[in-house]
Amino acid sequence: MRVAVIGGGPGGLYAAALLKRLDPTREITVWERNAPDDTFGFGVVLSDETLGGIEHADPEVYRALQEEFVRWDDIDIVHRGRTLTSGGHGFAALGRRRLLGILHRRCRDLGIDLRFRAEAPPAAELARTHDLVIAADGVHSTTRTAHAAAFGPRLTTHRCRYIWLAADFAFDAFRFEIAETEHGVVQLHAYPFSRDASTVIVEMREEVWRAAGLDRADEGESAAWCAKTFAEALGGRPLRSNNSAWTAFRTVVNARWSHGTTVLLGDAAHTAHFSIGSGTKLAVEDALALAACLQEQPDTASALAAYEEERRPVVASTQRAARASLEWFEELATYLDQPPYQFACNLLTRSRRVTHGNLRLRDRRFTTAVEREYGCPEHTPPMFTPFRLRGLTLRNRVVVSPMDMYSAHDGVPGDFHLVHLGARALGGAGLIMTEMVCVSEQGRITPGCAGLYTPGQADAWRRVTDFVHDQSPGTALGVQLGHAGRKGSTKLMWQGIDQPLDDGNWPLVAASPLPYRPGSQRPQELTAAELAVLREQFTAAAARAARCGFDLLELHCAHGYLLSGFLSPLTNQRTDAYGGSLAGRLRFPLEVFDAVREAWPADRPMTVRISATDWADGGTTADDSLAIAAAFAEHGADAIDVSTGQVVSHERPDFGRSYQTPFADRIRNTLGIPVIAVGAISSWDDVNSLVLAGRADLCALARPHLYDPHWTLHAAAEQGYAGPGAPWPLPYQAGSRTPPTGRTDAPKPRLTLR
């Protein structure tokens, strides 16, 4: 087997070494355009997980690395003159030159042909004479560019500029330091990579970089500016560069990683921001997986398919975490006024990979200090601290998210709703939300949707609120009012979500006459007179909700329903006062909000659910969502419930764990408005992390509460909490401890007989 490797970085070299070690008959050539000692970074950080893979695959390389590594456990966070230290994190790093030297030596010992200062022939040409071509040619991969139609690359350039530098001494911890300069916020990321040297990365927003004149500075001037800015951290010592240049990070994603017998590896296939770890780590892990798949699979095509299948989900998860981290640093200025420990906790948990639970395990004393500063009573997890909205105090931070049940008859909630909402009220959440309750018959999504437009419906809802307040004292019950707009007159979810009814359709209305999807009914554009009628319908429903005894009212302005349809430029194409600019698109939703707020009791809170992005070109953006949230807050909204999408059928959401929470975080920390975070929050550890870091005030969970109506009580039991934030109903108290299970441990051996 003849193998060509384009690129002599760590990923390409290690792939070559592994393939040769597994089969010495392989003829492997590595092309590297630079000299053996050329490298454009300084230190490399590898995780214990990656090192374990190296140890298993090639003990000789592992032993050589072990001799070079420097290790440390602490992270120092320096902000406004105060240094906070969190321990127990565990890092290992070495110089990039040393890593390359180890891999060069290993490749030569194995008989691999290393060609330095040599441009590799094009991948297409190599593929004609080699059985496998590994393109490890970096973020600017010429192979990927030459075969873009096959690989389907998507490159995203981000908003910060950064530069790699080095200091000739070793920091004693991984150091994050924030400098507030006359030009804006600048951050330092630094870590040791040998006993006498450290990597120093300086990063700032593009506009700060330009304001500081660094767009006109040469390499030496840039290093001097950075050294002066962080003189205290450096002890007045200089920074050195190595062909260092200011760069804007680019996230690389490819639709496919192989083309024929050519395969992408490392940065050529994917990139992840340096703030969560090393691209070298991912490249080395790619090499391990590729070599293993070539060994395990019957042919090259199967091996390349297996390699991508194995690595893609791991890389996608890493890239989601990296994006969360880099966006946190892009928005760093919004967090600067947080209390010191909360700021530090926020920084440490920014990627959502490190959680409250992880921190507590690594450094209990630090985490306890964060909790104490936050105001958690002793032995109380953050999620069980109370929260006040207007005249309502919620006993904990858990919300049962609104979930359409499609089980009403003629808009009347029945026994199903009583049991469904009652069970979740008994389950311990601080706030239980109804599904979207429709303000008119025409405003229903499906024939099974609940309403509040008749006295009979109000009576049925009163039965539910009475049960919750009588049987689960201290639990708040909220009602979400909305109108389906152009997404109405459809089948029940399990019969065909968003599909028009086969018969019995009712006419639809919307901001503009645009069907939701091909085959959907075309709505009528609302006239001024019809808008006035709709305001009255919302007001009447709000008055009924107040008489029913609901504790909180939420106005549904998200997910492409009627009011959301006014907010998005993709669904509002009106030319009158209710369209055009964002101010025009906000006009009708704000009129409805004002009318409902007036009808709703003054001491009871009112929230608004918005879609913070449409996940579609030309739609509502994250910046728009700030203006929308600010407008509702000015009109008296007590909190913003921040969801995303479902506005247009061609959306492309970036799904993942807690994927919507950054939008809530940005609104909260930019505007100072309380927020409810939603979106694939699935664990109590996530809730604790979001609340403690100040990214959200309340967390709404949907599917976890379908899986387990007593999710909150079980979260309390699993954390050993039995305080007022999660009281068990008296009839259930016998079940408040985790049930015992059979023994799984075995007696330890006491004697060894030879």
Automatic annotation (TrEMBL):
Stretches for region Disordered: 727-754
Every NADH:flavin oxidoreductase/NADH oxidase N-terminal domain range: 383-716
Lineage: Bacteria, Bacillati, Actinomycetota, Actinomycetes, Kitasatosporales
Domain of life: Bacteria
GO molecular function, one term: FAD binding
Organism: Streptomyces gilvosporeus
Protein name (database record): Oxidoreductase
Residue ranges of domain FAD-binding in the record: 131-319
UniProt-listed Pfam families: FAD_binding_3 (PF01494), Oxidored_FMN (PF00724)
